[in-house]
Amino acid sequence: MSGEGRDVRKRDAPERESTTHCPYCALQCSTVLSGERGGVAVRPSADFPVNRGGLCQKGWTAPSVLAAPDRLLTPLVRGAGGELAPAGWDEALDLVAGRLREIRARHGADAVAVFGGGGLTNEKAYTLGKFARVALGTSQIDYNGRFCMSSAAAATTAAFGLDRGLPFPVTDLREADVILLAGANPAETMPPLVRHLEGADLVVVDPRRTRTAERAALHLQPAPGTDLALALGLLHLAVTEGLVDKEYVDTRTTGFDAAWECCVAWWPERVEEVTGVPADDLRAAVRMLGGARRAYVLTGRGAEQHSKGSDTVAAFVNLALALGLPGRAGSGFGTLTGQGNGQGGREMGQKADQLPGYRSLTDPADRAHVAAVWGVDARTLPGPGRSAYELLDALGTAGGPRALMVFGANPVVSAPRAAHVTERLEALDLLVVADFVPSETAALADVVLPVAQWAEEEGTLTSLEGRVLRRRAHLTPPPGVRTDLEVLHALAVRLGQGAGRFPVRPREVFDELRRASAGGRADYSGISYARLDAGEALHWPCPAAGDGDGAGHPGTPRLFLDRFAHPDGRARFTPVDHRPSAREPDTTFPLYGTTGRVLAQYQSGAQTRRVPELVAAAPEAVVEMHPDTARRFGLADGQTAEVGSVHGSTRARVRLTRAVRPDTVFVPFHFPGAGRANLFTGDALDPRSRMPEFKVSAVRVTPAGERP
After folding, report:
1. Residue 178's beta-bridge partner residues?
2. Which of 3, 208, 415, 465 is deepest in the core (most CB within 10 A)?
3. Mean pLDDT of the chain
């Protein structure tokens, strides 16, 4: 009887639920988790304005990764025989700390490097930057967000004085009349966003006829690498057709004349010759934007991941400024942040040239402020280090880092020139990877540290609209698994830091983060866990009120309505001109190769390739090509082909489609081994942002096993 009674009460007890956010893209859709380990269920939150009860395929299947059969549950150490074997935490951490001390003593502090990720919580990104600069004393830290948002950040900071992906709430897009999407495919990369675009006429700029382009009122299909010429041509037409908002330009901007001089020669027919986009379509696009009462210009990775990505974004910003869109209620310019914490991750100090709060490592006042919060002498803080690709390229070389610690990234798959990067990782004296699944990078490590995943940890993330969100733990980590904060604390103590300098409780870290960001461009000082837990919608900047708790400041959902963030309050036009990509097609490599994402996979695939439903939907690398192109090169649908460039070749299955231009092939970058798209991408970097040129390579496609 008593046993039956306990069972009845257990069945009748309400199931525990946790409101949190999806572990994938920067929309950060709100979700509700229920159930216990091995049976966690997810449903979307109906009242969160971004996803409004919707989720994409990845969001619906996110709990599957929590039960991945190859989940890392114990530290692994590579033995004398070359195999990774289980080890205790003390053994693993003592080994790492000892090797780090040896390498620093022999080669200097910069011989140790750190590589972070745009999916880390704000607390972890903040602590990682602090750990590198205080516990290790190294300047060599960057993160995979350099491969994502750096060009947009460089361009928008120059134009507006501030970098926030969307300087307005996502929901504002619902009232738009016209939206230009340059190099963005949200129908596949962030599907819940599409419901906010349904009321607008879309102008989509993309060399592929994507699912987003299929929804468009007008699809502009330029050759890869020519988006900058297209943007210059659109500004040329805005001027010559009398669509420039002269009052706005005169009162709210500077530098228009210099920008105009750069695009005087980009008349529509010349743009058509370079891009392949008909001049009449260019005119139609400008008239749609210029004639709308409420219009937005949004860029994505397709426009940004180039050796001229910063200039390309700047050219689209120039167009938006000429039309009077940024800083106007109901209109604007924005960039669609990709990774889950791509926004917060670049504000909290894990970027090579930044301190928390978007402070600068080269500004004496910024250094002094953060050093005071950290309790160290500002003179001990290192200066800026190498950018992400340059850091990876230098590993194991004379004068380069001899040890690397990786948190939340998988550069073996995600970095350009992937085979070369793999060689550099293999040349290290010490590679340490903290992850929750055995990624391709973890497979190369000397020490692997098993850490908690999204539903097992507390923290905050910052969405693409600058809204700070609470991640809540639904499960406790499995036995033997630690959080990243616990790992960094334990290593810092072993390296001689005081036990209180690196807190392990996310709330304590966030409170310190608030102080470090106070007065910075990304000011979080008025945001607290208490306010977030009470349901307040808080967008940075949100400075603290006089009493220090920030209760008096509502946050800033819409930036620039009164003034831009430059000292004079005006936005800046940037004079830019088109130039070719680093390597254009030729007789040996006659096609454009471009890379990107597909609906069912995410980033390097380390998580999504462990979800059966997603693997069934997108199981392997493919190369999309036009049927005419396939005939030209003797390829058939379903055949295995090699996509090769001067840098290397990728093996993928041919998929015939008329959605791509005949001069272009597309390969998604989520797959491992010989299917890595980044085997053929190059190392040309944007001179301002240091963004690699992922979106255009000169390639040839041949049947697998054949060589021309």
Report:
1. 201, 295
2. 415
3. 95
The answer on pLDDT for 676 being more than 70 is yes
Residues in the chain: 708
Sign for the pseudo-dihedral over CA of 338, 343, 344, 346: positive
User: How far is CA 563 from each of CA 245, 327, 555, rounded to the nearest angstrom?
Assistant: 17, 8, 16
Inter-residue contact 679 to 694 (CB < 8 Å):
no
3-state secondary structure of 166: coil
Cis geometry, peptide bond prior to residue 44 (ω within 30 degrees of 0): no
Whether the per-residue pLDDT at 6 is higher than 60: the answer is: no
Name the one residue in this structure whose structure tokens are 């460039």. Answer: 645
> How many other C-beta atoms are found inside a 10 Å radius of the C-beta of residue 12?
7
545 residue type, one letter: A
The residues that bridge with 650 in the sheet, in sequence order, are: 643
pLDDT of residue 549: 53
| Type of residue at 480 | G
Structure tokens at 574: 């940037």
Is residue 9 scored above 60 in pLDDT? Answer: no
**Per-residue pLDDT tens over the stretch 62-107:** 999 999 999 999 999 999 999 999 999 999 999 999 999 999 999 9
The crossing angle, in degrees rounded to 10, of helices 279-291 and 227-240 is: 60
As a whole-number percent, the residues of the chain with pLDDT over 70 amount to 97
Q: What is the pairing mode between strands 664-668 and 622-625? A: antiparallel
pLDDT of residue 708: 52
Rounded Cα distance, 91 and 636, in Å: 54
Which residues 6+ apart lie within 8 Å of 118 measured at CB? 143, 144, 145, 148, 149, 338, 339, 340, 341, 342, 345, 346, 408
Sheet of 30-34: strand order equals 17-21, 30-34, 41-44
Please give the pLDDT value at position 338. 86
Per residue in 253-297, pLDDT (tens digit) is: 999 999 999 999 999 999 999 999 999 999 999 999 999 999 999
- Let me know: does 23 contact 453? Beta carbons within 8 Å: yes
The residue to which tokens 């994505």 are assigned: 300
Residues 6+ apart with CB under 8 A from 265: none
Cβ neighbour number for residue 394 with a 10 Å cutoff:
18
Contacts of 631 (CB under 8 A, 6+ apart): none
Confidence at residue 707, expressed as pLDDT on a 0 to 100 scale? 57
Task: List, in order, residues 6 or more apart from 489 with CB less than 8 Å away.
Answer: 499, 502, 503, 504
Do 389 and 146 form a contact (C-beta atoms < 8 A)? yes
Distance CA 392, CA 499 (A): 31
Q: Kindly provide the residue ranges of all beta strands, DSSP E only, lying in 436-589, ordered along the sequence.
A: 447-450, 459-462, 468-471, 571-572
How far is CA 205 from each of CA 24, 85, 188, rounded to the nearest angstrom? Answer: 25, 50, 15
pTM of the model: 0.95
Residue 93's nearest CA partner among 428, 490, 493, 496 is: 490
DSSP state for residue 35 in the 8-state scheme: S
Q: How far apart are CA 295 and CA 331, in angstroms?
A: 5
Beta carbons of 378 and 608 less than 8 angstroms apart: no
Residues 565/153, Cβ–Cβ less than 8 Å: no
Nearest to 326 by CA among 130, 155, 120: 155
Per the CB < 8 A criterion, the answer to whether 692 and 624 are in contact is no
Q: List the one residue out of 404, 360, 405, 403 whose CA is nearest residue 381.
A: 360
Neighbours of 396 (CB within 10 A): 17
Q: Three-state SS for 571?
A: strand
Please, is 375 exposed, middle or buried when counting C-beta atoms within 10 Å of its C-beta (0-12, 13-18, 19+)?
exposed
158-199, pLDDT tens digit by residue? 999 999 999 999 999 999 999 999 999 999 999 999 999 999
